[in-house]
Amino acid sequence: MVRRWCTMEGGFLSYYDNERMAAPIGRVDIRDVVSLAINNTESITETGPVFTFELYLGSQRVLQFGAETSEAHQDWTHAIAKSFVPPRADALLKQDREIIGRLHYKEGHDLYYWRMGWFALVGSELHFCSGDEDEEEGVLQLKRLQELTVSTHIEGEENIEVLLMVESGRTLYLHGITKQDFALWHSSIQLAAGTDGMALGGQQMNKNDVPIIVHSCIAFVTQYGLCHERIYQKNGDPGRVAQLLRDFSKDARVVKLRVQEHRLEDVTDTLKGFLFHSEDALLAKELYPFWISALDEQDEKLRVQKYSSYIQTLPKVNRSTLAALLQHLYRIQRCSHINQMSTEKLACVFSSCFFQTDGHTAQEAQVVEDLINNYVHIFSVNEEQVRQMEKENSFITRWKDTTFSPAGDLIFEVYLEKKEPEKCCLIKISPNMRSDELAVSTLEMKGIPVKVQDLWTTFEVIENGEMERPLHYKEKILEQVLEWRSLEDPSSAFLLIKKYSGSKMTDSFSDKLKDFIKGEQLKFKDGSSKLLLGNKFQDRYLVLQDKKLLLYKDIKVKGKSALTTTIEDSSRQNQLSADEGNLPDSQHKLASGAGSADVSKLEIMIDDLQSQRRPSFQQDNSPLREISGRKSAMSNSAGKLPQNLINELNVVLNKTGRAQKDNS
Q: Is residue 435 in a domain?
């Protein structure tokens, strides 16, 4: 680094050998600046200590400058940033930024075109704006990223590197103006999104501000330890525990705890070890005398009030982590009849972790025991949430291959189009998540744009893939998944996101529906159960014609057999068709494949079918969704059909190629 005299005027940054020279030896057009990287710490160079900054230019050049004082450094970086950042992105100049510049980007809701945006990296936050007057500034919390990956995309004849970031359902794609500035942003974002020491606030977080290491260990223990005797009292292998702690510290997002690779005792010791060795105690060391003195209050309700007031003074990450841990321990003790871990035993184990003290005292254990017992009251958990936890506990003790997150969400494997490892996504299913929301989340996680003509929906697949049905777009996923408990092998069931085959339709589809005829032998079950039970399905012949779905027990023509099945009073909850207008605006590109049905006698009316909807029945071995009602056989004495129905049936069979020869 050599000393130069610099000036900035007229949109150019010029530099001279010294201040007496009239002509510059070089200059930079500020319009060519794509990124400004600012180093706020002092660097030692051959010319002495300086505060440096770098200019990344569209011409593929990188220039480094240094100021002798922090004040001069701040003045120069602010002046340069103000010169090349447009006024509509002025909000980014107010931040104590480390990098500021422009990048190409795409968001999850608009993946068709790259847009130009302005970005500023501030600590572990990425601020950005498009520059459009009607759009507000966006912020990504980099510590909370669920995914951070780089891939190569083909744009025309050029291969470009793209950075993918997913945070709380928001997906952002970035690529640089040049290779140099992309490398700058990638490395800086990766560093900001990583673990910073052992402090709770420096960890990679989930969306609820709980460190991923805590979140992952809780989920694993809930899945595999809820029914395990003396869980948290058995010791793991010190070497394996130390390695897990190093892996989480390096990049917690890539650590996947699997029962085939990790032992339960190692994971429990990893959780306890992290809490014990973190730089700040979960319950805050400075509050230790207050926690202990609260025990002087004999009335438990008054003690709990004091605990609640102390918790409110904790940092946000401490509060959220404490809530997640207490919910987990509350779950564990609710199954103490199986795992032999009472609240008292759990308190003895975790008191030294919560307070970061050697061993444990009766007073510390009593405080933790109070916190576990009163978790519901302290964190204002409502009755519905408590019932949900009990239901989940019941479910997980009967079905061992499921994971629950600390927030009570079901962590579930969802497959895109096929049940193959590379098609699998791990999705958090909250108690209120609907079928259409799951489809959107899966597609966004896989980076797949939803086209208008594509009708994506969620299917439940059971009986080892032999049976599937589309879920209604408003149907709650968790409620249906919990029904799998009654299956003989719940682990054989899974969720699948896919498009309907041949689902492309035109605007005139409704007008042409009368000319459409489809006949097929299908499996049919008459009953009100939501769960598909294979042993209750029967072979039936179904015909779709003239906006009607006709159900036949068997097929013989020319009046030689009777149509014996009648369908009445079908449930309206699970629809066979629906007006697209009933869909939420944000979900018009999705179709559930299930809708409402008005059924009488032998007909299911399909009215006002719009171009974005499809009849929700499945061919081959896929049954209709929940056609409930009464089934009555027509008497043998009424064996002949009315002549008009016989004629109609003959037309259908002729057009579907299934007409039988007259043997008379």
A: no
Closest CA to 533 of 520, 543, 547, 523: 523
**Residue 290, domain CATH:** 1.10.555.10
The 8-class DSSP code of residue 211 comes to B
Examine residue 169 and state whether it is found in any structural domain, yes or no.
Answer: yes
Containing structural domain, residue 77: 5-84
Number of domains in the chain: 4
Higher pLDDT, 383 or 516: 383
The reply to whether 389 falls in a domain is no
User: Whole-prediction pTM value?
Assistant: 0.60
Choosing from 29, 59, 84, the residue where a domain stops is: 84
Task: Answer yes or no: do 243 and 371 share one domain.
Answer: yes
List pLDDT tens digits, range 424-437. 887 877 767 888 88
User: ∠ at Cα 255 (106, 405), nearest 5°?
Assistant: 80
Number of H helices, E strands in the chain: 17, 25
Start-to-end CA span in the chain (Å):
104
* pLDDT tens digits, 555-614: 654 443 333 333 333 333 333 333 333 333 333 333 333 333 333 223 333 333 233 333
Copy the structure tokens of residue 182.
């992309």
Could you tell me the sign of the dihedral formed by the alpha carbons of 584, 589, 593, 595, in that order?
A: positive
Please, what's the b/e burial string for 396-406 (b: 16 or more CB within 10 A of its CB; e: otherwise)? beebeebbbbb
Return the number of other C-beta atoms located less than 10 Å from residue 335's C-beta.
19
Shared-domain flag, residues 237 and 218: yes
Residue pair 36/119 in contact (Cβ under 8 Å)? The answer is: no
The token duo for 645 is: 């129905």
Q: Which of 443, 471, 478 is CA-nearest to residue 457?
A: 471
pLDDT band at 482 (very low <50, low <70, confident <90, very high): confident
Write the CATH number for 28.
2.30.29.30
Task: Please say if the pLDDT value at position 520 is more than 70.
Answer: yes
Q: In the prediction, which pLDDT does 41 show?
A: 87
- pLDDT of 111-153, one tens digit each? 678 889 999 999 999 999 886 666 778 899 999 998 899 988 8
Query: CA 553 to CA 539: how far, in whole Å?
Result: 8
Residue 169 token pair: 């359902």
| Residue finishing a domain among 84, 104, 131 | 84
At 36-71, the pLDDT tens digits run 999 988 887 777 778 999 999 999 999 999 898 999
On whether both 249 and 143 belong to a single domain, the answer is no
Q: Is 365 helix (H, G, I), strand (E, B) or coil?
A: helix
Q: How many Å separate Cα 460 from the centre of its chain?
A: 18
DSSP for 74-104, please give it: HHHHHHHHHHHS-GGGGGGGGS--SEEEEEE
Cβ–Cβ < 8 Å for 567, 553: no
Same domain, 210 and 271: yes
Of the listed ranges 292-306, 528-542, 649-663, the one predicted with least confidence? 649-663
- Write the DSSP assignment of 522-557 as a string of letters: EEE--S--SS--GGG-EEEEEEEETTEEEEESS---
pLDDT tens-digit series, residues 498-517: 986 544 444 444 455 556 67
Q: Work out the percent of the chain whose per-residue pLDDT is above 90.
A: 39
Burial of 110 (C-beta count, 10 Å sphere; 0-12/13-18/19+): exposed
Same domain, 230 and 169: no
In the 8-state DSSP scheme, what is residue 643? H
H/E stretch holding 247 reads helix 238-251
| Residue 415 domain flag | no
**Secondary structure class of 129 (helix, strand, coil):** strand
- Provide the token pair at 153: 């995309």
